[in-house]
Amino acid sequence: MSQSVARSRTNHETIARNSSLPLEAIETAYDRIEAERHRNCWIYLRPREEALEACRKLVARARTGENLPLLGIPFGVKDNIDVEGMPTTAACPAFSYTPWHSAHSVERLTAAGAICLGKTNLDQFATGLSGARSPYGPCASVADARYIAGGSSSGSAVAVAAGHVAFALGTDTGGSGRIPAGFNNIVGIKPTVGLVSSRGLVPNCPTIDCVSVFCNTASDGEAILEIIEGFDFEDPYSRLPRAFSFATGTEPSFRFGRIAAADLECFGMPECGELYERACERFTQIGGTAIEVDFAPFRQAGELMFSGPWVAERHSAIASLIDIDSGSLLDVTRTVLGSAAGYSAIDTFGAIHRLHRLRRDAEAIFAGIDALVVPTAPRPFTLEEMDRDPITLNNRLGYYSYFANLLDLCGVAVPNAILPNGMPMGVTLLAPAWHDRALIGLAQRFEASAGRAAFELKPGG
């Protein structure tokens, strides 16, 4: 699979003339998937011949002159996002249903010529950041099977990193579209909440859920975002962008916020902090000026996610879909949701008022910087460690990610460097809502500084 999203868009006519190119890509994808079932990254796989026939029909349409910018590109969809004719389980077999219509984002991708190969694994009902909370089996990092892939969009990230697909859709509420990217050495695009329609998404925390993108380069992510973004009146959480211009991320100089070395939290793995320092040096080398910022407002906002009443929104959303006490849920899922009972309406309004104050503190910090750079996750954990203490370690994973949607930030997670144990670690660029393109521009420059081959799919495992 040598084609990529960005390259396919520029070679549309060539691919339309040579139908073997996309068909070969589909065949290769299925060969890899079937050879790597042990990765547990797929819950449902579309029949091979069905995908090939869909590809042939798309090529025929392209030959008539129809513009299909993603012609023949294979992709995966997290199994809490609807795809017409494919079961949606949210990693809960008792919840399974087969939708008549695809999610809005999936409709746009297939209309552009992309081919969905199936549904990917996840932490049950997207409740987790490890990728180890699924009855369909845990997902491990492609770098080392002893370590978690990160979640909840674990299957989507692994499918991209293993070279099964060119890109995949995930979701992000508290880091699910970024942490798996970091632990699998790929890119994760977390759009501004409301930029991409959430219609057709199984709700988690509806006010802060968003569809995310996993891909191999920031350019690929930008190409996908251009297809799926846009206001959707039928989605009550969709938003119109603010009507003013932003920097593109290509300006020669920029200011980036960084966490002071003394304030870095790596939970007992200091070598992760060393890689963050290296990333900050690289941002300086490409024209950035580092500015130390007070991380306290971000940390305090993150604490509201699972140590505050937002878990009650999660409980409310999932309880509307399935009986939480029926025995259909994993014990860890039920335990997390059960904590919602400890919060009252008074607690909720108090937390909302506190969040508004923290948002103002964050606004003041971003007034002096173009982007905030944080570790995508503090450190990796093994599957064995997560099994022993799933809730404490899960909350540690979200230390640098939980706050983003609560503070109305957009983000791009990019690969950074490899730990001595072989595990990849990423960094995430964050900025206020609607600065998505500026962050992608900075991410592209960061990629170039590492000498990454643009537009290439991951080689097979």
Automatic annotation (TrEMBL):
Residue span, Amidase domain: 24-439
Lineage: superkingdom = Bacteria
- What SUPFAM superfamilies does UniProt report for this protein, alphabetically? Amidase signature (AS) enzymes
- What keywords sit in the KW lines? Hydrolase
Note whether Disulfide bond occurs among the keywords: no
Q: Which Pfam families match?
A: Amidase
UniProt cross-references to InterPro entries, sorted A to Z: Allophanate_hydrolase (IPR014085), Amidase (IPR000120), Amidase_dom (IPR023631), AS_sf (IPR036928)
Q: Which GO terms describe its molecular function?
A: hydrolase activity
Does Plastid count among this protein's keywords? no
Recorded hits in PANTHER family, A to Z, give: GLUTAMYL-TRNA(GLN) AMIDOTRANSFERASE (PTHR11895:SF169), TRANSAMIDASE (PTHR11895)
What is the official name of this protein in its record?
Allophanate hydrolase
Query: Source species, please?
Result: Bradyrhizobium japonicum
